[in-house]
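Session log. Operator J.P. requested a structure for one protein chain; no other inputs attached. Running the standard single-chain path with token output.
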Amino acid sequence: MHDDNAEDEQRPGKPQALVVEDDAQIAYLLQFILSRDGFEVTIMKDGRAARDALTGGPPPALVTLDIMLPYVDGFQLVELMRAASGWERVPIIMLTAKSQESDIVRALDAGANDYIVKPFQPEELRARVRRLTGSRR
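Structure written below.
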């Protein structure tokens, strides 16, 4: 389920990033930031679509994941992703407005690699993506 932009067509060699975000403006911003850093970005607007993607092809190089999503929340998705074949080592960044320590601990304990509270700083996100993916873009 790609955005409808012609630029969004799959290109060989580009690492894939999965953005699971129900806020269209934030999803667009994430797509802009990640595509500038060389990722081919797929946006999914709800947890059910992301859950269904776990069995549809190779895992991405990176996932950004909101917690408060329709149908299946981010906590459940992290657990499902970690249990899915091939997804065990995919870097997952939780990107959410939930800033309670208990939410952060729950997400990290479920298998998230990092946790960023919205509103986020784009350069901080880029630095964390570089750290997790080993990219030097």
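Operator note: The first strand starts at residue 16 and ends at 20.
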